[in-house]
Design brief:
The relative contact order is 0.11. It is built from 3 helices and no strands. By secondary structure, the protein is mostly helical.
């Protein structure tokens, strides 16, 4: 008897996640002297875009 074990994994690292990791690494080794606000800005930008998209979808949603 053959078992069908199909493990599907959905996920990954987005561009903004990679950019954040890069900026944090550069900040920690003192290559850049940015404020932590700028270092973590890719996360804030991604969150802001998500909120904007949700608001637009809710605006144009049929009632």
């Amino acid at each position: 008897m053959e078992k069908n074990n199909s493990n599907i994994s959905i996920g990954g690292v987005s561009f903004s996640d990679l950019l954040t990791i890069l900026f944090v690494g550069l900040k920690l080794v003192h290559v850049i002297n940015w404020s932590w606000w700028w270092v973590l800005s890719p996360l804030w930008i991604e969150a802001a875009l998500l909120i904007i998209v949700i608001c637009v979808v809710m605006l144009f949603q049929e009632r």
